[in-house]
Amino acid sequence: MIHEVDDVLKRMLTGGALAGSGIDVALEAPTRDWAARRNAPTINAYLYDIREDVTRRQRGTVPVTDERGAVLKRRQPPRWFRLSYLVTAWTKQPQDEHRLLSAVLATLLPREILPAEELPGSLGALGLSVPLTVAGIQSESRSLAEIWSALGGELKPSLDVVVTAPFPAFPEYEAGPPVTEGAAVRVRGIDGTLEGSPERRHRLPTSGGDTPGAGLPDTGRVSGEARRR
């Protein structure tokens, strides 16, 4: 799932306001060594934090259906994780870096929700939209100054981009076959013998113009003897 979010973010950063600019997009840690090797204007999106969004955790199971809507399996709901990226611009002039960061804002701000059909692999298979926030309030325990200190570099203007993505939960549980017949009802006497009335069966409702009460049991034929018991 993480590498798929990387691909989605990198694809967005090379498009939008930056389409056709030829700006490189890197995912490496922006250390001093990396900055020294850089020889072209670059947008760096460094994944610095991964943690679960416990407010989205769900209990129970969700059904897995086929094209007809029949339940084939049941599985646990996915777990959601916040992937936090430190997005920075690298050029020779600060003004050019600020222009690149403005272009990143113009590209990502309209994409607050990423639809499932635009997501690759297991992300798209879940059929869930993925939220994205840009330059929001930082909720992680570590500060940006601590991150830059750990990277061995100097504090630099950056955008905090957070993608909250679902991770498929396992295992899946096999579901029983769908019900195709109504339940049968038999009436026994006190001595355990079957009554003489025929077996009564609940009729399943059908699609389309069904008659009122078609899925209900036929209770109008209960004999007086059965009622007395």
UniProtKB/TrEMBL annotation:
InterPro entries: Pvc16_N. Pfam families: Pvc16_N. Residues 191-229 are annotated as: Disordered. Residues 4-181 form the Pvc16 N-terminal domain. It comes from the Bacteria. This is Pvc16 N-terminal domain-containing protein. It comes from Streptomyces purpureus.
